[in-house]
Amino acid sequence: MTPRLTPLAFALITPLTFFMSHAQADQPAGQAIDYAVDGEAFAGYLASAPDESRGTVLIVHDWDGLTDYERRRADMLAELGVDAFAIDLYGQGNRPVETDAKKAETARLYEDRERMRRLTLAGLEEARAQGAAGPVVIMGYCFGGAVVLELARSDAAGEMAGFATFHGGLTTPDGQGYRADTGPILVAHGGADGSISLDDVAALGRELEAAGTPYEIEIYSGAPHAFTVFGSERYQARADEKSWAAFLSLLDEAL
């Protein structure tokens, strides 16, 4: 039987330790999954639990598109006994490099929320088709964190057992809101984030409290935007490790 995903499991596989030990690997441990949504081609990534899975984590990429960063996170989760599927919201082969191109891709989805939700749920459907098991928690980084909250506010929220956003966008569009019957939400935020302010965090907290939505907000002192991104100048191991431990606690509650 797969052990419970308690915070103690965190001690066995810290994010930075995993990254350093796998940095030289030629291939990720999981498998690339090509799939189609309404005739459009997409390229996801599936990492399956080696034994019986406790459930599934759906991973939403940041504004770079699906890269080795999300694949590494999926591999980490698989080693902890869950199936992980990293979805693709941009389309096969579309991995923008320049800042303007990244902004254009995210704007395309921010301006078409219905497409954002549809592609996310199509990723979940593909994960199920590939054998991903049990209840689902959805997590996302930066842009992906905003997508997570979009799902938490949608009619599809009931399909998810929990939600986690790491240094993600927190603003609620006009006409949207949260509900009390939504699964637990984890918000992991850097105190030194120059892109998403503490005022934004406080506003979200007020919304969730008023709605009666179960949530936890963690703020990590000195952590900048994108504090979980391995190898970058913004990476902060302390905040990454604490947010990962908080996420494992959410998985233990939700799965």
Automatic annotation (TrEMBL):
Alphabetized Pfam families for the sequence: DLH
Keywords: Hydrolase, Signal
Superkingdom per UniProt: Bacteria
MF terms in GO: hydrolase activity
Domain Dienelactone hydrolase: 42-254
Keyword Cell membrane: no
Signal sequence residues: 1-25
Keyword Hydrolase: yes
Gene3D superfamilies assigned to the protein according to its UniProt record, in alphabetical order: alpha/beta hydrolase
InterPro entries: AB_hydrolase_fold (IPR029058), Dienelactn_hydro (IPR002925), Dienelactone_hydrolase-like (IPR051049)
Name of the protein described by the UniProt record: Dienelactone hydrolase
Native species: Halomonas saccharevitans
Source organism phylogeny: Bacteria, Pseudomonadati, Pseudomonadota, Gammaproteobacteria, Oceanospirillales
